[in-house]
Amino acid sequence: MTKAEEFEDLRPLLFSIAYRILSSVTEAEDAVQETWLRYAASDTEPRSTKAFLSAVVTRVSIDVLRSARVRREKYVGAWFPEPLLTDPYDDPARSAELADSVSMAALLLLERLSPLERAVFVLHEVFGFDFGEVASAVDRSEAACRQLAVRARRHMDEGRPRFEADRIVRNELAARFFDALHDGELDDLQDLLTADVTMVGDGGGKAPQWARTIVGADNVARILTSTMPWFFQIGGRLELREVNGQPGALFRDRDGRVLNTWSLDVLDGRIQTIRTVLNPEKLEHLGPVADPWAIYEEAKQARRPTD
Predict the structure, then answer these.
(1) Which residues are in the RNA polymerase sigma factor 70 region 4 type domain (predicted)?
(2) How far is CA 164 from CA 84, 113, 159, 171, 285, in A?
(3) Cβ pair 286, 268 in contact under 8 A
(4) What residue ranges of the chain have pLDDT lower than 50?
(5) Residue 130 CB contacts under 8 Å (≥ 6 apart), including other chains
(6) CATH number at residue 241
(7) Same domain for 54 and 139?
(8) Which of 106, 259, 260, 287 has the largest count of CB atoms under 10 Å?
(9) Is the Cβ–Cβ distance between 238 and 210 less than 8 Å?
(10) How far apart are CA 249 and CA 238, in angstroms?
C-alpha cells in the first residue's frame, strides 16, 4: 500500500480527531492537509502509521487551537462550533463515545479545557488511545498525560449533558417540532419544549440574530411563531438533518442556499436547548451560503400590512 493510500484510509479518523480538538470543520480539514504534507515529506517509516499520523494531526491541531482561542475571546455574541452534518469516522466499539463527544453541548464543554487537556481527553477518552500513544502525540510523559486526563474528565463530568438515548424518539420529536414551526402553531410548540428551554444563536455579528439567550417555553414559542412563518412565506425551506449527532435542520433560502443550522438537545420527551448557527463564515463548508441580511429584510417587508 502506498503512502497516499494509507493516508486516505486514515483520513476519516484524522479529521474526527482534529474536529473534536478544534470545533471547526475548515480548520480540521486544514490540519489534516498539513498532516499529509508533513507525512509525504518525511522519510520516517513508522511502526504504526495510525499512531504516527494521529500524533501529527494532534500536534498541528493543538497549535491551531492556541491561536484560535485568542480569536474566540473577541468573538461577537455566543460562540458555537462549526456545524458537522456527518462524522466520517465510525467505530462500532466506541460508538457511544464518538456520538456524545461531537454534540454541540460536549464541544462547548471541551472549550473549557486547556489545549493539552482537550487533546488528551479526545485521544484517550473518545478514541481509546493508550497513554503511551497519547504521551507520544502530545510530547508529555505518560504520568503527566494521566493527570491531564483526570483533570479533563473531572471538568467534563461536572457539566456532562444528558440527552434522550432513543434516537427514534428524539427524531420523531424533532419532526413534530419543525412541523409546528413551519405551521406557526404556538400551542403545539409550547407542548414540545421544557419549561426552562433555552434558545440561542451564533451570528458572530455577521447575521441578524436574537439579541440574547431566550429562556422559557412561552417566550421561545412566541418568538418563533412571530418570526418563522414569514421565512417560509418568502420561499424559505428546511431539511431535517442530524447536526453534530443531534436532531436538527438545515435552513435554505428559495434558491437552495444555506441560511443556518439548528440543533436540538432532547431529554425526557421534550426539547431543552435550541442552538442555531447563522454566521455565514461557519456555513461555507455546507455549500453556497445565503445573504442573511437580505432574507431578514425581505421577511420584514412581508410582515408589513398592505393597503
Answers:
(1) 105-156
(2) 19, 25, 16, 10, 28
(3) no
(4) 307
(5) 124
(6) 3.10.450.50
(7) yes
(8) 260
(9) no
(10) 6
